[in-house]
Amino acid sequence: TTTLTEWAINYGTQISDSFELNSSSNDVNNIYATSNQNLGTETPILSVPSDLILTGQKARQELGTETNGAEQSLMLSDHQQFYLFLKVLKEYELGEQSPWYYYLNSLPRYYSNGASMTDFCFGCLPPYAAGLALAEKRRLKQFTEALNNVSFLSMESKSNEELTKWAYNVVYTRCVENPGGDMVIVPLADYLNHGAEPNVYITYDEVGNSYVYTARDIQAGEPLVISYGDSTNPSNLMARYGFLDDSSPATFCKYVVDNPTFEMFSLGYPSSMLFYNDGGISNEVWDVLLYELLKVSPDEQQSFYQAHTSGDEGTKASYHEQYFAQTYQAIQSHVTYILNEINELGIGIETQMAQGQDAQRHPRLPLIMGHNEFVKMTFDNVQKNLDNISEEQQTFYQAHMVGDEGTKQYYHEQYFPDTLAALRKHVDYLVNELDELSENSWRKTFRKDET
Q: Cis (ω within 30 of 0) for the bond into 270?
């Protein structure tokens, strides 16, 4: 029997002696690459010839004339993943006659991502994560329906739900984007797992050959990892790939806006709206929620946004100070809502399990419960942070009102670096403004004050 590495070598792949495939002790479907040796930075790991790499563009060139109807029915701006989906199905039908037979036969049959989830799974997830998972399920449905307009595949294959779901998952959990914008599946390199801090990277030459190199020193036994996407959005990684990245230092705050504007994207929605595991809240959360609150006062909303785009931290800070109570309450309400959702889901899951809906019947349940617990832990810490913010702000204000200079001094010392940073940003903004006016006497005054 030919092994995967033997197959790859027969087709021209060069594999370092340090490259090794292992399976997880608690999940036999999780096969991943490790190094069995200590390696230095920029050590070559793999070299995969372009002929062995499955690409969306090559699949479209090969199959496109027979799939025009399918492409039109999808109404998508980018069809590369769909053509990879068709290519996988075509090679599957060829069986052992396919050059990729040993590779495809090595791939997992079981997946835990959104496309593989059931209605029970969706009902166990918070709204944001459930929406992401359902989007994967809908895309799978689009792909399978488009197969009705594909003539070169057999009806048996097109009507086999397990087969089409497997082909879809092969593409969406293993393809990556190359520098030219093409979606590609690189055999063996697709066994590199995800890591928030990658220790290897993939590169390509001008003819499409792919290479994997170490990005830093690696210890023997260490998994070889790349980044599959934003590590601060574990819900998205779970929906697409079917795993929980619990090493993530933060998570998207789950604040969803219907029809977000260009201004909101500029303020950091949604990618920079983060809740950190230690309870921290990114500035973008405060910015976006304040911008939303200022909708009732369009002039102030526009003034706040202009201050953001011009780097006028002083004006932004004044709006945040003026509307702190309202913004604080909006964040507090959102955190409470999400925590209530997760707690209710937890009660529902416990009830279902008591009625026999356990992990044996729903094997993705442990993953979902782990995801929900990760989100809950982060939001619990944010809640504690909000409680502390409220108490500290009130204590500082009361000290100011009664003339308690000792307490005020304590808070000034505790938050001196943050206060100094805010002042520096404000001074830098004003100096830049004055530079444009070229009023050197005023500029010298500000530089003196800064010192």
A: yes
